[in-house]
Specification:
By secondary structure, the protein is α/β, with parallel strands linked by helices. The chain is built from 16 helices and 10 strands. The strands form 2 sheets. A 7-stranded parallel beta sheet has the order 2-3-4-5-6-7-8. α5 links the parallel β2 and β3. α3 packs across α11, α4 packs across α12 and α7 packs across α10. The chain is globular and about 60 Å long. It starts with a helix and ends in a 9-residue tail after the last strand. The protein binds ligand V47. Ligand V47 binds next to β6, β7 and α15.
Length: about 350
């Protein structure tokens, strides 16, 4: 192994990983440029097992998308629609609550609610939705609204981000999902999502939430026009934010799905890209407790192999996922608990059902 690491030019990185030392920007670039995928897996797995042993987390959750009518219309997104588009939809508060009530007989612990940057929903809509969900299922943890949505909700209400977060928390918000981060690079945002909240503002919203006691996740959308350097910059920016607040629970590298988007000519990611992104994330984000292989975007088979490349979380039962599905995702929208457990056991890992905050659910 040592010889193989030396031959691949990864021995110095190995020494740092073995000593628990932080990797540099250049190390991140070198890892991405390496073709020695099994060695990247070996290195990432050292960190994975140091932090989480064999445990592989999953959650019993439900996804609800309240609307896809969006003013941002990012080029990588097949989900967002212009106002007036016949494929646009908006659920009213009662319809969201009904989706919760439909599944009261299932042991769901978390509802994941995200939508769009809707042009004219009032501030009260977001608060009423959270209250209605809590009324329908008081024990449920609501993980809702990306940092991009939070900034938009605050603006809609004429409030600061702190004020809006405080109102949302009073109404039942429990934590914040990791979407909307994309790639922080200004070059990428100008080209793909010029109207979206800039990267530094996304980080500000996340850090503000953390300071107020909310935990959140972070993502990176890879496999479109971003460079390796832009990926590493993104990871380093997240690592620095986490040094400041410690509020991130989990990082999720999201594989770009080109179908039905303006970037349809881009090839879908290869399995080696997916595993490399999991491994490099695990190695660079030394202060993130968890790395998620989101099976909906990776497919079940790559997500399973990713459990040996740094990932210790598969997300969950998911029910009704739309964002990947509309962009040509073929892995399905739901998985039963026993299927997830089987996937984990077949990989030689130990399934652990968790709640949103990574407490074990017995
Ligand atoms: O922000 C949009 C991405 C994200 C496409 O926090 C696409 O646990 C691939 O963030 N191909 C939303 N990706 C989903 C998300 C998420 C999912 C699961 C768990 C968590 C979590 C967060 O989906 C968006 C964007 O980056 N996205 N379009 C596409 N065509």
């Amino acid at each position: 192994m040592i010889e193989a690491l030396k031959r691949a030019g990864l021995f110095q990185i190995y020494e740092k990983v073995a000593a628990g030392e932080r990797l540099s920007f250049d190390d991140g670039v070198a890892l991405y440029r390496s073709d020695a995928l099994p060695l990247l897996g070996f290195l990432a797995n050292m960190v994975r097992e140091r932090l989480n042993g064999d445990a592989t987390y999953y959650i019993y959750n439900q996804h609800i998308n309240y609307s896809n009518v969006c003013v941002n219309l990012c080029k990588f997104c097949a989900f967002g629609k212009e106002e007036g588009d016949p494929d646009g939809f908006l659920l009213d508060v009662e319809q969201v609550a009904e989706k919760i009530r439909e599944r009261l007989d299932e042991p769901i612990t978390e509802v994941h609610i995200v939508g769009s940057i809707h042009p004219d929903l009032p501030y009260s809509y977001y608060l009423d939705m959270l209250r209605a969900v809590k009324e329908a299922r008081p024990g449920i943890h609501i993980q809702a609204f990306t940092c991009v949505e939070i900034a938009h909700i605050a603006e809609t209400g004429g409030k600061s981000v702190e004020e809006a977060l405080s109102d949302l928390m009073d109404a039942g918000l429990g934590s914040i999902p990791g979407g909307g981060a994309e790639v922080f690079s200004q070059r990428i945002r100008e080209r793909l999502c010029p109207d979206k909240l800039p990267g530094d503002k996304w980080l500000e919203v996340a850090k503000t939430a953390h300071r107020m006691g909310l935990k959140s996740n972070a993502t990176m959308l890879y496999g479109h026009i971003e460079t390796v350097e832009e990926r590493v910059e993104h990871l380093v920016a997240l690592r620095e934010a986490q040094d400041e607040t410690g509020g991130f629970m989990c990082f999720i590298p999201l594989a770009f799905h080109p179908k039905n988007t303006e970037l349809e000519s881009v090839a879908p990611t290869a399995g080696v890209d997916d595993l490399k992104n999991i491994a490099v994330s695990r190695l660079m984000l030394d202060n993130f407790p968890h790395i998620k292989a989101y099976w909906v975007m990776l497919g079940q088979k790559i997500a399973q192999v990713a459990l040996w490349y740094g990932a210790d979380d598969l997300d969950g039962t998911v029910l009704e996922e739309k964002i990947t599905n509309m962009a040509g995702g073929e892995s399905g929208q739901a998985m039963a608990r026993n299927e997830i457990e089987h996937l984990i056991r077949a990989a030689g890992r130990v399934p652990v059902q968790r709640d949103t905050l990574y407490n074990v659910v017995e």
